[in-house]
Amino acid sequence: MIAEVIVDIASSEVDRIFDYTAGPDIVPGMRVSVPFGNKLIEGFVIGLKDKSDYADKLKSVAGKLDDFVAVGPEMFGLMDFMVDKYHLRKIDVLRLFVPAQLRGGRVGEILLDFVQLALPYEEAVSMVSASAAKQIAAIEYLKDAGGFSSELNKLFGASALKALKDKGITRVFKVRKMREPDTFESSDKSVKLNANQREAVDRIDRSKGVILLHGVTGSGKTEVYMNAVSHALDRGKTAIVLVPEISLTPQLLSVFRARFGAKAAVLHSGLSAGERFDEWKRLLTGEASIAIGARSAIFAPLSNIGLIVIDEEHDGSYVSESNPRYDAKEVARFRAGYYGAPLVLGSATPQIESYYKAQTGEYELVSLPDRINKKKLPEVEIVNMSREIRMGNREIFSSSVKQALENCLADRNQAIIFINRRGYFSYVMCRDCGFIAKCESCDVSLTYHKTENVLKCHCCGKTYRNIEKCPHCGSTHLRQGHTGTEQVAEEVKKLFPHANVARMDNDSTRKKGAHAAILKDFADGKADVLVGTQMISKGHDFKRVALVCILEADYSLYMSDYRSNERTFQLVTQVAGRAGREGLDGKVILQTYTPKHYVFRYAAAYDYQGFYEKELNTRQVTKFPPFAKIVRVLISSPSDEDAKASARKTYDALTKVRNDSPDDFIYFQGMKSPVEREMDMYRYQVLMRIKQENADKIIRSVYTATDKCKNKKSQIFVEINPQNLN
Ligand code: ADP
Ligand code: ZN
Ligand code: ZN
Description:
alpha/beta; binds zinc ion
């Protein structure tokens, strides 16, 4: 037989099929070792055939790397799909299908050193001098059950343990350790579905297409997912459930574990290499049949998939923005389609594009319009911060927020204070009249660039002189940037010295497990107030939160991005949804300088439909997605000269593409990227907006044109509807 092999080298020159002769034990999907040049390298067998055009020169496969088939037959179709759609190399896609650590033989089963006393306790103690405190302590520790070497070394020091072993007091042997990822403990609440939930589950069961599950916060979507998963398993099938960032939603995993036990496996980047491998292997062998995880879990090695769920489908994290670039939702659609299984996209605030597809019949729409037990959504109060300032309050908190916090704490309830620091840039805003510096031709705010001391539009690239005073009212009370979580937490402590304040942001959650720990402490009532960034907006179900305060709600509104209205609406709705979940009547206070903005009006009324229609209309008029595709070709290099030269060449090549069908282009411009230098790379871009109708065809030409501009001195990436245009 001839094996068709893709070698594990990330280079476009060798990203094609190489033929090798192979014995009968080699089957497609296996990882093998093959001679390449003058050494052995790893590769994936993607097919077998009888004849090769190079028959007389073929080398043979040196051997298989695993005793299992790592990549199932469906995945080859997925590989072709992704290669075509995202213009990726085959090897980059194949690498996504197996745990990174499997490659290069870096992980397999772990065998750990386990230490036990080799002698009865008294005898062991008698052999150690009383002054060797650490050795005595170790013997004490080992008395009952023994322990793992790594743990013991940490506790008592390696030298004490070595001494014990040398004296024959302990013995060490190898045991296989299954790496179980951490979860919250949780017991399975068996609930009776309400009529809406039952209807939703029925429709999922019957569907073979994409279902958009639009359910308000607290409407019991998780319960719908679990029932649908359970039905899929009953039919002998498997399921994938994706969540935005699993480290932020350990509850989901724990409720799945509580209901499905070891049938649920978890895959995400927060796991150690070993844990990941073990969970992946359990899915591959069928020991587990539900894969739960963040974006990359969409590549779970399951076959016979009966259901895929993407929770919080509006979340930007489903799109991979670094190489290899792909959209997990599109991958999910391919995989579900292959098996004729339903794909469920769930959200309280669906992405505009998704809802549009539901409206135009491409997706099926299923709604859960009420909270469980018809619990009211919390009332939202909008506070006008310009007015606060006019009344002499220049502090972070409005008087409303202060009062509400005081009441909340006096009632021994909990509060969440949300401050959106997502993003990188400041905006320039007048504190007296709310004026915000905006571009003349685009509805986006200008960004202050410090090095050049100018304001720039990140949409069209126009620059403006920086302003010292407000062109609208003349005030010099301008602000750039924003108050951070740290300052807010400090302020709460100052105002309420007896309150326990916890903080959750990128700084406070750097350590593994820190997210979960902060959330658990808050859920257990160890903190009264939780101050945080958008991390706290995601799917947590806290029972005692009576108050949610949203500070600087405007911030995300003026990110230079066509999605900023949508993101703000989503954030406000999601954060507001954390209030008043059980028993309590929640209250939400939103501080803004633009209280009349339609985003806040619709968000305060929980009117998704209204917001959607308004926003869709704007996008139709201004020609943004879903009515156009934004394509950015990003060119970067450690040398400014090289980046610029490469950008110019790319721009010229793309100009030809544009000139072939000028009517399809709404916008076409080459410029420096808004972040001109990032991680020591100089960045340039060609930004395009292309009418929806012919976008796919034109994007292919864009790929072909940029391929020809590739060179060793710079990187060139094509991004479609990027999540972030920095
Ligand atoms: P969502 O994901 O839509 O915001 P959740 O799935 O977190 O909502 O559900 C909110 C709460 O309601 C959870 O505590 C869940 O256990 C509970 N719940 C869900 N369905 C029911 C039901 N049919 N009866 C009683 N409680 C339910
Ligand atoms: Zn002003
Ligand atoms: Zn502009």
